[in-house]
Fold these 2 entries.
Entry 1:
Amino acid sequence: MPTRLTNYFLKTLREDPSDAEVTSHRLLVRAGYIRRQAPGIFAWLPLGLRVKSKIEAIVRDEMTNAGAHEVHFPALLPKEPYEVTGRYVDYGDGMFRLNDRRGVGYVLAPTHEEVFTLLVKDLYSSYKDLPLSIYQIQDKYRDEARPRAGLLRGREFTMKDAYSFDYTDAGLDASYQAQRDAYERIFTRLGLEYVIVKADAGAMGGSKSEEFLHPTPVGEDTFVRSAGGYAANVEAFTTLVPDARPSEGLPAATVFDSPHTPTIQTLVDLANAEQPRDDGRAWVAGDTLKNVVLAVTQLDGTRELVVVGMPGDRDVDLKRAEVAFQPAEVEAANEDDFALHPGLVKGYIGPWSEGGAAVLGEKGSTGIRYLLDPRVVDGTEWITGANLHEKHVFGLVAGRDFVGDGWVEAANVKDGDPAPDGSGPIETARGMEIGHVFQLGRKYAEALGLKVLDENGKLVTVTMGSYGIGVTRILAIIAELNNDDKGLIWPAAVAPFDVYVVATGRDETVYAAAEQIVLDLEAAGNEVLFDDRPKVSPGVKFGDAELIGVPKIVIVGRGVADGVVEVWDRKSGDRSEAAVDAVVAAL
Amino acid sequence: MPTRLTNYFLKTLREDPSDAEVTSHRLLVRAGYIRRQAPGIFAWLPLGLRVKSKIEAIVRDEMTNAGAHEVHFPALLPKEPYEVTGRYVDYGDGMFRLNDRRGVGYVLAPTHEEVFTLLVKDLYSSYKDLPLSIYQIQDKYRDEARPRAGLLRGREFTMKDAYSFDYTDAGLDASYQAQRDAYERIFTRLGLEYVIVKADAGAMGGSKSEEFLHPTPVGEDTFVRSAGGYAANVEAFTTLVPDARPSEGLPAATVFDSPHTPTIQTLVDLANAEQPRDDGRAWVAGDTLKNVVLAVTQLDGTRELVVVGMPGDRDVDLKRAEVAFQPAEVEAANEDDFALHPGLVKGYIGPWSEGGAAVLGEKGSTGIRYLLDPRVVDGTEWITGANLHEKHVFGLVAGRDFVGDGWVEAANVKDGDPAPDGSGPIETARGMEIGHVFQLGRKYAEALGLKVLDENGKLVTVTMGSYGIGVTRILAIIAELNNDDKGLIWPAAVAPFDVYVVATGRDETVYAAAEQIVLDLEAAGNEVLFDDRPKVSPGVKFGDAELIGVPKIVIVGRGVADGVVEVWDRKSGDRSEAAVDAVVAAL
């Protein structure tokens, strides 16, 4: 039975939705694929649901090929398991919480590690039951602070989440690899370019994690890669630590007046003017040690100041800092913080004071923790604050004149930084997350008591992986990548229909002929959307066809009386005539 | 790729779950189809999900045949639309409610009339866009007071809910009929016997409603039907009202002493002993007028007493009373209620007092509303309470001696009662609701402002229907109907697999031969579950096969060396030999 526009649920819109920030959102709403219900929450209209189902079918297929079996959990789950693992607290405001009529606490699950763990614990008890990989395609909820960009970051989204269960580390490696391979096949079938990068495991915990990023300048994630094959999410990038140097023979540090040096550059200029280097090389920003005061707020609300010392040509990258301090929140210290800590001489903060007493760092007088960038190795010399108003110090040597209380990866990453694996300089790029695989290890199994008997009858804790693909996000990215100024252009693998047949004019015989073509196309296995609207102008019909973006369009007009129709390729825009009885073959 | 039990996610259980009240729940848990997460909330394991998907596919197919298009709404929705229609309050504790991080109120949708109405309002504005039927298959949430019977009444459940939109009453009739016809086809394909009964529209509002009930003695709904074709849910049954009779010439009412008449029967016995009828017929319970005091609590908490007068051979049916007083809650009055109303002489309540003053009914002295059963028509004579301790009255005539403040359908329905359409006596039976179709009319469209321009350019309010099938409930009912003491016996249309192949023994060549049979069966289009577990006894394997209930079982044992396997029909229990190369044909 043909799907006819005269009774299909579809209304294309001439105007962009006022809240659309990105192309995919704008076009998916205008072309009648989705409709907003609340911030970050959408209804799926018939066209959108068809595309979503096709993506899900590809994901299902490759999950089956990876040996994973499908299950399905509710979105509404008891809060207890999330309390046991700590995520009930860790998720903060990002989790939707509610009580039932008896006052029992529930959550709308943001992800399902806990209940998958408990399900396997509930049913399995022996190593013989493992390995096991199970997955679901399910609607998840996260109360994002700023839901935005349409489906790219919603508060409800459809996700494929898979979980693997093994009792050996080698087993976990194999399960992880099987999912990783499936992800590569899925993205290839979807025509989505991807980069696999080392990632931070974040709130998930666990030992190893990789992200699949689609590289695009408009991506919200930054990643780095080297020509030698290193790739990492910028949050997971680790600094290549230089070798320590001997400090013997280095001159003693000297304090100098440095008024009017509000920036690193003014400080460097002053240094070059007043203390030129013996070898004639100019001082540069990287020769200074910048001391940045951060406020670190734990989930329980306690706020701690931390000073981070890093080369002056770096800035704090708050996302990297948040990973370093997770699950705490990190921000720059404010005026109140400084007022409470008069020992911090704003603009002139350093680890050391004249006379050699530590102001920051081990046993420092301020009591504030002082963490160092990994590049500040023993024996390096620095121009830095002297903890006195309008004074800095030259030649302060790490390890000799000051030590930190530890190391921290909080500085930004720059093009040209060396990859930690020695594979050469990295460059940064932008990407959108399209998949994430985690070796969770035993974190969840330990917290929830998932153990099995091994070959020797000994109880061992299970080791797990978790593997996520954002189905609705991928749909939005495909829309983001495949469009022009006329509308969407779906790749055949996920198009809502294979062919879009447009009948034009007012001649009923044309519509009858078009319907026969639709039936022939359907008989040949095509999914067809038939624009049979009798009183709509060809211009409007063609505009809708372009906006909706079915890859192949067949125009049936008066020429059909002579056995001729027009075949239109949405992507190339090519239009050519075809004989009616050759249309099926032509497509 | 064969689905092998060695890596499938399945664990059959020997013990019944402790909370299982019904067979379907017990077997679906034991056979590894579902697993409880919280009261009335279940996870779907691979076998269960397959059965559920098959039911959904049949529903989808018939929705398409009925011209309905699929959409999908979130479960999490803003509360405002439900406030506008009043259902936010009407649902009482039955609705899950929550706030987001900004304090904005949301609900987990129990059903989606409001947002479907708004969606159509959002996109459509002309009669030319109608009729429209759209549906979804979606997980719904209701905070049932007593979730029970496994999937039969859960707090989360999957439902197909369709909505039709028309601008004429005739259009609504046609849309309603199309869904009703689709339901008949769906239940026929699922092999589910059904009765279509008139139903009460309940909290949905609207003008006409029918329920599809599966007749079964364990059903939780009572319905009535006549041989002449009348069928109604007991809540929707209406009494055939007898004609009024002349009261001229009837003797005056007389009061008599009636101590020790705590029950209707003792009162009838006393009447027969002390006041025998002139014609010699004995007084029966139906000659007495029983006055029952009900407490009716509105949603805002106000509690009102109401007295219902009905023939003494009837009892109050609280479900029918709740329909009569909806959305209020109804219960029997308690001691406190009586204490507050000393005008009600417990055990001797009647509408009338000696001397002719009305105690109940129009301008009665108690101020309490007095409603009458429809059978208490003018001219009927009654034995009833005299509103004096230990006194009753004979020959009290309705219309002459007392009137009510209105009529109410609160009495129970009994076998032999006449059908309201004159089609003869009804009988009561039990059934389970499997579908419900509503003509909502303009209630939702009016509340939410859904209007379209008609042919004359005039704005008209749209008229709607809503049509629900409980997918997970149907699955449970099918399981409830198709089982024996060994386990489940799925009908082929919804079985998780078509064939279950069991390899027995320890001979690897048997397993290899079995695998080839599995591949041949799959190549012939069968879905096959392969029990390839090498170290499990045949007895356990056969027990699992019976418990899981795939309709056809193939046993591959040592005989395969001679080219013979066994084919086992799960339902009949018949086992017969078949040649290996004839297995595909044999099935």
Entry 2:
Amino acid sequence: MTAKFRELFDAQPALIQAPMAGVQDAALAIAVDAAGAVGSLPAAMFSPEQLDTELRKLKAAMGNRFNVNFFAHSEPAPDADADARWREALAPYYAEFGIDVANIRPGPGRAPFSHAVADIVEPYRPALVSFHFGLPPDDLLARVKAWGSRILSSATTVEEARWLEAKGVDAVIAQGLEAGGHRGHFLSHDLTCQQGTFALLPQIVRAVKVPVIATGGIATAEGVAAAMALGASAVQAGTAFMLCNEAKTSALHRAALRQASARHTALTNLFTGRPARGIVNRLMRELGPMGAAAPAFPLATAALAPIRAAAEAKGSGDFSPLWSGQNIDGCRAVPAAEQVRELTRLL
Amino acid sequence: MTAKFRELFDAQPALIQAPMAGVQDAALAIAVDAAGAVGSLPAAMFSPEQLDTELRKLKAAMGNRFNVNFFAHSEPAPDADADARWREALAPYYAEFGIDVANIRPGPGRAPFSHAVADIVEPYRPALVSFHFGLPPDDLLARVKAWGSRILSSATTVEEARWLEAKGVDAVIAQGLEAGGHRGHFLSHDLTCQQGTFALLPQIVRAVKVPVIATGGIATAEGVAAAMALGASAVQAGTAFMLCNEAKTSALHRAALRQASARHTALTNLFTGRPARGIVNRLMRELGPMGAAAPAFPLATAALAPIRAAAEAKGSGDFSPLWSGQNIDGCRAVPAAEQVRELTRLL
């Protein structure tokens, strides 16, 4: 099945390093590319200037042989009531850390893909552009296709996979429930629709003709081989790269991933407003993990930012998003190239 | 890895038909055994007389080469308040179907394994005895081991697998979140601890020395091969056998499994009091799927029974437990022997 993926991207092996906003930049992608796999740049949290800088680094290292990932959500309208409810829920923590609520400024946002962002990306014509939370509007998608990028997007159900194929994607990423970070669902927000990789992957492989990239819980060479046995054309691994030397994973986050307690993750909407999988910590235990008070994505981040910063200053990850998939057994603090070799050992 | 399983049970192939209370009896196990795999009898819902009858059928067909499965929960104390709350939640349905609440009698219960049940089982000395929801008390477990049965039990976390190994089980069943029917968790009732098979299976394989049997979302030959690639010594498949000729799956349940909407399952406590995976239906949509009003396992069943019966009499599965795993692609209305051949095609 890997031949289907190689028609899109001549990677040997058919392994994609998952784009992970907040814990990596071009450095990880460059190291993965040097080892022969597909490096990805997560663009959702970069400013326009940062994005251009990172793209320039990628171009210098590997031409256009990379994947750049964008979020494709709709920006929510400002909602003062929702923001007030969220701040009220967080009030005990503001008090605990002595934070002056009047000083809270908008934190790092997550802007959806737009023509303004496309203006930055177009000169680089990345081989692959992947989206999370569906796809951008048709005209924007057509623009990306017109400059020659192949389009990938995440499906968390069979229905989403069929929808993406009908919209003309070149490959579907089947995101099993084990995956770390944000769930990519976009047709239904009912979390009971989300399936484990063992169920989701083969059902999507049967449902669509485009290549299917497996992700979620795949963290070892055996996992990669198993995903291929289930019909995947390629595998995308994220958590397995989080301890790599070239990742920008914080010391706090690295320490959390090294503990056995990291096996207890949960989907939580508290950090951004959308469900994402992270290691269970104090905020998740006390307000959730799914909390009714969290505002629409991505508006939860700003009000939480000063609490997170105050806790991190004391060496605590109690209020930090400690994204992780459910399978931490593959995490190794090694160069990314060594992780690529290990993950693809059985291919 | 299958050699590890064959030291316990000389099955060729290393495939176990999952015990499925309510949808099968000895007939399915006998057909599976005749095809060379391991047939299982689910004992949790049988009366003592039924259990003896079914065991006699198994003995006549295959000696002691079978698996018999018991629930190992603690029986809850009667709780009149909880029962009243549950009946109040169900009151609109009693009214809708014209049911006289005064006439409600205890429905089919689910008794835990006990010395009285062991008295029935002992003469048959089944090759395998499997437990769900942990293990019975030590003296009872010792009794089963003393008569020569090998012990299997379900683990839904790495911690549970280690606990079971320490208690002396001969093999651990790694039950991924995709699995249909009751979750087997017993150390923590926090559902966020539950993992997809892709994450759970390899982590348990690394954590214990006993053979690991994979279950959850495995419904095709490719799935069986993938589980073996992840280190399973054997695979247990349930949903894939539910449409087989020899299963006792009701016509309503069979019809539900044949629809694409069967892909939407959820964990629900409404039918028994414990979370179990079934196809989403009206009761689950209106009161749950996880409902605070449901009493402790297995006490939810009785008060719901007349509503279920009234709905089923009208041809509706709106109030029936339509147990199913997340992967329905392997369901085929064929003889069980043909399903065994298909599932093990790649071994």
